[in-house]
Design a protein that fits this description.
It contains 14 helices and 2 strands. By secondary structure, the protein is mainly alpha-helical. It has one domain: ABC transporter involved in vitamin B12 uptake, BtuC (Orthogonal Bundle), CATH 1.10.3470. It has a two-stranded antiparallel ribbon. The longest helix has 35 residues. This is Iron complex transport system permease protein. It is a multi-pass membrane protein.
Length: 345
């Protein structure tokens, strides 16, 4: 732990929270950037809405077509980009903190692929609405996490072994997902393949509202385990000496991390690399000694909102946001691998 930086301690009842001053400032700046990005997302598009008109719409003083465009079409998408990005950032922080490895994110070690497999099985085999798909995604992610954990367990878990096993499981699940799409009816397969690219196109208030409520509950549960996560980054022996109950805390963090990824996958499909990049970017700009949850969530929200803006407005034709995050994240992953190789050389 770094005690040389300015920190504040908030106490409420029997709960105390230590906050780094720089991390708090970084989070505040990211929240402001998200607010500015959300306003831009509401105003920009093929039907442009001026700022005074946008204010009137948000005040309820404008009942024209602009109200439908802003409140029914663009607002759920902007909110989804912020909430889903925060969920992916926090999920990535959980797994990178647990393994002390920057490569350990749900999309690299197969948990996102498992959620995708579970959701695909529900869509293609069983059918059903958002609740069924969300349940399938959650069960698929949990089953994959269990399989990766058991295959990587050799009297304990190391971050490197978990990542190697996870990459292998992710490759296997990728083949299963392709086979499922090839076996499905053409119309269902096309719909599932489009959804599988990771897209916020056509997302509704119903999907955004249900997912946001579920994710907010998970935010609270994950933050409640944040103290244990910080102490586990010091090593198992040190965490145990500080009174952390390792296995219950680790199980709770894995469950909340998988559930955060599954909630996003169920609503928007698998959106890659945000969970990988956000915790590392947050650690560098906040200059924290380890992975922290809230800065990672704020960074993830800003990243996905920016990627969605690029997907909608910066290219000749709109693309699913998952395509943009894969292109940007691929370059980031190459840089990260080179950086880690040089660090360990």
């Amino acid at each position: 732990m770094d005690f040389g930086r300015s920190q504040h301690v908030l106490r409420w009842g029997g709960i105390s929270l230590r906050i780094s001053s720089r991390a708090a400032v970084v989070c505040a700046v990211l929240v402001v950037l998200c607010a500015i990005g959300a306003v831009a997302a509401l105003a920009l598009g093929s039907y442009a809405v001026s700022l005074p008109q946008l204010v009137d719409v948000l005040r309820g003083a404008d009942d024209s077509f602009a109200r439908t465009v802003v409140t029914e079409w663009r607002a759920p998408r902007a909110l989804a980009a912020i909430v889903f990005g925060a969920a992916l950032g926090m999920s990535g922080a959980v797994f990178q903190g647990l393994t002390n490895n920057p490569l350990a994110s749900p999309d690299v070690i197969g948990f996102a692929a498992g959620s995708y497999t579970g959701a695909l099985l529900v869509i293609i085999v069983l059918g059903g609405g958002y609740a069924s798909v969300a349940s399938g995604a959650l069960l698929g992610g949990l089953a994959t996490a269990t399989m990766v954990y058991l295959l990587a367990y050799r009297g304990g878990i190391t971050g490197f072994r978990l990542i190697i096993v996870g990459i292998g499981v992710a490759a296997m699940l990728g083949s299963v997902n392709t086979w499922l799409l090839l076996r499905a009816d053409l119309e269902v397969a096309m719909s599932a393949a489009t959804w599988g690219a990771g897209s916020l196109n056509g997302i509704t208030w119903e999907q955004t509202g249900v997912a946001t409520g579920f994710i907010l509950v998970l935010f609270v549960g994950t933050c409640a385990l944040g103290s244990s996560l910080r102490q586990m980054q010091l090593g198992d022996d040190a965490a145990r000496a500080l009174g952390v109950r390792l296995e219950p805390s680790r199980l709770g963090l894995v469950l909340t991390g998988v559930a955060l990824t599954a909630a996003v996958t169920a609503a928007a499909g698998p959106i890659a690399f945000v969970a990988l990049a956000a915790p590392q970017i947050a650690r560098r700009i906040a200059r924290t000694p380890g992975i922290t949850l809230v800065p990672a969530a704020c960074t993830g929200a800003a990243l996905l909102l920016a990627a969605d803006a690029v997907a909608q407005h910066a290219l000749p034709s709109p693309l699913p946001v998952g395509v943009v995050t894969v292109v940007i994240g691929g370059g980031y992953l190459i840089w990260l691998l080179i950086h880690e190789m040089r660090r360990h050389a």
